[in-house]
Design a protein that fits this description.
The structure is a homodimer. Chain A has ten helices and 44 strands. Helices cover about 15% and strands about 40% of the residues of chain A. In chain A, helix 5 packs across helix 6 (about 585-595). Chain A is globular, with a radius of gyration of 26 Å. At the A-B interface, strand 17, strand 18, helix 9, strand 44 and helix 10 of A face strand 17, strand 18, helix 9, strand 44 and helix 10 of B.
Chain lengths: ~725, ~725
């Protein structure tokens, strides 16, 4: 047992001892459940920044609070006033954001037929845009008071006077303007990029004509209806993206000469503060060579490659350039080039001025700078791999100061000047606290504390800890939940809830122990629940993550089996009744575990599972697996179809019939193979659902999964 | 118990008492299983007619046997000779059929690249047609020695010299020539009709452009691929069919002026022996009014309506006109106008000459006439609703003579002159006998007897009997199978195998008690099996069948519940463990039973089930249900989605993902409803399969079904 150490244990206490038999239902525990809203930790007030003004609000009213004395506050706007401002359209106070326009902060709110900007005093509308039902990706430019937006595949501008200009013009089929490209990979979450002074609009143009139509079918129509999507699969033709820049003055569009091969990836578009240049983190299709290229906005010519990053596995740029306020020649760049995500201060000639952070931990998020560009603010997991704290880093001295203190996962919001921070955080014991941090004074004051919404219930014991990975060296973290009303003399059936894929971290010191509602439900029913972040998951550095390269599922499964060994060592775990459940990558992992270790795992439920990586999309698929042509043996050994004959236990596969992420073909092809080799999985479909079951179906889904374990594992 | 009487009981006897523990596997019992071929009753020789010559054959040789002394036979053709004749292409002796050409019978055989006619002496090829890979529906005309065939949607002629003529010419998309129309309903099994003397070719032309594309998806492709079909649903636009007649002499095509509304049904196309006229049994879309219309081949004008048939439920013409040999002015028509299928002798003026058969029983099949047109030969179930015997009916006197004698189900083949009949038959005790009937002498002689292929196994006791239907009057027939090694002191789980839809009869006195292999498998596992032909099924008359009109599933379910009552009365049936399984209409019935009687039926397996008749096709759907607009309340009360909330027991639904008959939408929409109302069916998919699972998948399917009952009913 010496390899296992328990980090901490937290027991939820029943506040009301008379209500011990009160059971949480899936309606309480699952998003989409009728009573689920009752169980998210709530504070009386929420906060956001309006410049350096601290805005406090609830659903009825909005106040300006004094930052240094938040108890003192001034009523700012009521819901009735807001309702009048939006002509009685539906709009709530919590939807107001604040935008700096002409040196002042305006309240921005999108009602059903318009986008409205309320003046700084919040008593009148300063200007408004009409919006149509099919407008999407509405992007407002404060500098020129124009919105850009898309309708279907086209990109338009709309002025406050209502004038509309079509930027995309040609409107060919399969050419998409102004939308997210490369399927949200590489940190891409927009296709519209206003220039800093509002003179230009940069936008993605995506040509999908070379990508095969992938047929999805809507069975809710009177006669089932085809819904084609463009889904480029690993190894097949990918879409071709370019970046156009529209000049507000000339009305002309210049395309950046990003050249060939055209199926490269144009990521992290960043404007130069001067508006003369634009930067693109360009990645080759193989995703092992990135160039940070600088283009002339006027000519579209590439004027410089600031620097390059290469890897024998993959380079994955995920953040744009963060220019220093008031210093148009310096920016902060995030890179994992040393193995962990850290900050680098560069100038626009591409000269590295300074590495700002280093160590065997990762910067999680850049929150911003102070107004004088003296400091950058971040969150990182330096103190503990399963926590995020906020830090200040001095750009000159490199001095790092911890700002948040309480253990847990912190989500701070920086004020405009960088003098203050609101800090939302939780940990295993704390449902939700909101603090105000006065950064220069290092003073933390409590703004709000949420009440434990589970106080009337007996909750299971949840503990977090770590074991050694299959390499016998690396610490990997787990969450362990004992059944409610645990009896140490009993042996319990045990379910591993797994995800295990890149860009994930399931075990975190947040509330309540980062547990999912379904796990509490199953603990109530008398199961032990266990989750483990195997190697291959996030926030532990590149080596930890990329050990899985070209062989997804193998090392991850080996680590999960260390988890099984740990479970077997626990006196209250019935080693003959260990099951596994996961969704998406977790469905893939569930299938791996069931088929690679059929004598250890008795029951599995694999949702939306990847079965064969050749059916997955290019961007994600080729990053981790290379293409099927480059890595045939890797695709073979990770293809669940090749292991279908190993199935011994009960395996339920579940899929949404309109899944556009892990297409239905995955699980259906697996059924086909099992039928061929004579094994007997079970199956279920959520018609009309996509990759994740949402709404009321999600409640049904979790009951369905629970019943499957009750049938075969209990 | 007085309502129940047992017709007969038959016990399979173990021939080898030492082999009692030898178990039949699904590989033995299910078509598609590796050893299934071993268990079909086999005779040493088979027989077919070459005119009045009795041809005897096995896989090695073919003989001409003397009809009056079949032991005396002359070698005719060997497989080596055949192989030489077909240039070593694949061809077997049992594929040879005999065609009358120029007064002699030629052997016809289709090899992989050609259609060959072997001369009457069977020693040389007389003529041959090249065939291409995509040729379909090849139809040879002996009179002009030309084949008609289709490729994709088009219709062609090919002469022995290889010349090809395109008859369809326009080749528009969605216009289909020469193929089956109206989805095989109304007895339609061809789209090509050569005229008696070979001067004309009649063919269906089907315009499907107004029918919605229905999307099926092939997931076995590298990227899932769309496979649209045309599937007109009840109440929606149907395809429009016309009948063209191509003149071999002029090369012109004349379309029969069948007029409007164009979505009527052109059924049972029959040539007049003179070739001057063609008859079409035309049915309105409502299917309650049939006209037997006569058209001029030359002009396409309708020259007469011979007679009409109407019904307040439906008229269902299923057989063309049978013209009397040597009498071009008289034909036999089959009709259920009196409530049972009987024969009527008409002349071509539409005058009814005589009703040839009558009574509360049904003519099953018209076998043909004798050469002098004195007698017509039929099979019918006059003697017993679950048997078919052959009869001779004198056209003049109406005298009916029973030809076959042994109890059971007879499938006779008449010789050219009508003097002889080979009679293949089986009953519960007789795996397969082949008799020769010398009709004029009434002499029956045994040609072959098959050995019981199950002789090494202990088979369950199978009995057939009848109970009263829910109307307390009508006799309905059942099959009951006791578990192998039955112990009368035990209580057994029981499974109802159900179909229950029109055009079906499951309980027949054939071998082995009309039982399916899966039933034997389940009896071996210790289940009681039960099947019942409820009202609504075939061969019992129109009232028996059409009680279900506009309300499919209701009366059928009521009758099946009489079966449940009967089962509950049996001391060895465990009334708490009754399950049900069926496919297609039987899947619909299974779902009905599970949802309408959730306290009686514990476990169900519904394969390819109809769930909501509005998703079913026009022809079948509107015949029995009228359209959704005409019968909204009927569609509502038969829609399983409306009962989804009743589900209490375990219900497994199974579907082929390329089902073009009961489209996938049925079972998927049911899942969607169950999810919505919070019930929990189970599900399985056979990818790449259509309406019925075929090949090896069929074995897997039956094991899957068996395991489901083992999990939840045993």
């Amino acid at each position: 047992m010496k390899n296992y150490f328990s980090l901490f244990i937290f027991m939820f206490c029943a506040m009301n001892t008379f209500a011990q038999e009160k059971q949480l239902t899936l309606e309480d525990l699952i998003p989409g459940g009728k009573t689920h809203h009752r169980f998210s930790p709530k504070t009386d007030y929420s906060f956001r920044w309006k410049g350096d003004d601290l805005i406090q609000y609830n659903l009825d009213s909005m106040w300006i609070a004094e930052v240094r004395n938040p108890g003192k506050k001034k009523l700012f706007l009521t819901k009735e006033e807001l309702r009048t401002l939006v002509d009685n359209e539906k709009a709530n106070l919590d939807q107001i954001s604040f935008t700096l326009i002409d040196g002042k902060y305006y309240g921005r709110i999108a009602a059903s037929s318009k986008l409205i900007f309320i003046n700084p005093e919040m008593n009148d509308i300063s200007f408004a845009f009409q919006t149509e039902k099919n407008d999407r990706n509405i992007s407002f430019c404060p500098e020129n008071k124009t919105t850009a937006f898309t309708v279907d595949n086209n990109l338009y501008l709309r002025s406050t006077t209502g004038e509309v200009i079509n930027i995309s013009r040609d409107e060919k089929p399969n050419i998409v303007y102004g939308q997210i490209v490369h399927r949200n990979e590489f940190g891409i979450n927009s296709g519209i990029f206003w220039s800093p002074k509002g003179n230009f609009l940069a936008f993605y143009r995506m040509d999908e004509s070379m990508v095969t139509d992938y047929p999805l079918v809507d069975i809710s129509a009177r006669e089932a209806k085809l819904k084609n999507i463009k889904y480029p699969m690993a190894g097949n033709a990918g879409h071709e993206v370019t970046l156009g820049i529209y000049s507000m003055q000339s009305g002309n569009t210049v395309y950046m000469k990003t050249g060939e091969p055209k199926d490269h990836y144009l990521t992290n578009v960043s404007w130069d503060p001067t508006e003369k240049y634009i930067y693109i983190a360009e990645l080759n299709r193989e995703q092992n060579h990135m160039q940070l290229n600088k283009y002339s906005v006027e000519t579209g010519e590439k004027t410089a490659t600031l620097f390059e990053e290469k890897s024998d596995k993959y380079v994955e740029p995920q953040n744009p350039l963060f220019f220093l306020p008031g210093n148009p020649e310096q920016f902060v760049w995030q890179s994992r080039r040393t193995g962990y995500n850290h900050l680098y201060l560069y100038n626009t000639l591409g000269t590295l001025i300074k590495q700002l952070s280093s160590g065997n931990w990762e910067v999680n998020k850049v929150l911003g700078f102070d107004a004088e560009s003296k400091n950058v603010y971040i969150t990182s997991n330096e103190l503990n791999p399963i926590e995020f704290q906020s830090f200040q880093i001095n750009l000159q001295s490199g001095k790092k100061t911890q700002l948040s203190k309480a253990p847990g996962v912190h989500s701070p919001q920086l004020s405009a000047s960088g003098k203050y921070m609101t800090d939302y955080y939780s940990n295993r014991e704390t449902p939700k606290n909101v603090d105000l941090i006065d950064i220069s004074k290092g003073k933390i004051s409590r703004l709000q504390t949420a009440v434990n919404p589970y106080s009337d219930y007996t909750l299971p014991e949840i503990s977090l800890g770590s074991i050694k990975a299959a390499d016998k060296e690396t610490d990997i973290y787990y969450r362990l939940i004992k059944p409610t009303h645990f009896d140490s003399t009993k042996k319990y059936p045990t379910i591993i809830y797994v995800y295990g894929g890149p860009h994930s971290q399931m075990v975190l010191n947040n509330w309540p122990g980062s547990v999912r509602g379904w796990e509490i439900y199953m603990a109530q029913k008398g199961y032990v629940l266990f989750s483990l972040d195997n190697r291959g998951t996030s926030n532990r550095g590149l080596e930890f993550e990329s050990i899985t390269h070209r062989q997804l599922g193998l090392e991850e499964t080996a680590d999960q089996m260390e988890g099984v060994k740990f479970l077997e060592s626990l006196p209250y775990v019935d080693a003959d009744r260990i099951g596994v459940h996961g969704w998406s990558y977790g469905g893939f992992m569930t299938t791996n575990l069931m088929l690679r270790h059929p004598d250890k795992l008795k029951v599995g439920v694999a949702g939306g599972p990847v079965i064969d990586w050749k059916y997955y999309e290019i961007m994600y698929g080729e990053r981790y697996m290379d293409s099927p042509e480059e890595n045939p043996e890797g695709y073979e050994k990770t293809n669940m179809n090749n292991l279908a004959g190993n199935l011994k236990g009960r395996l339920l596969l579940i899929h949404g019939d309109e899944d556009p992420i892990v297409v239905w073909q995955h699980s259906l092809s697996f059924l086909k193979t099992c039928i061929k080799v004579g094994t007997y999985p079970d199956y279920f479909v959520y018609p009309g659902q996509e990759h994740n079951m949402v709404g009321r179906d999600r409640v049904h889904l979790h009951e369905k999964i629970a019943r499957y374990f009750d049938d075969y594992l209990k």
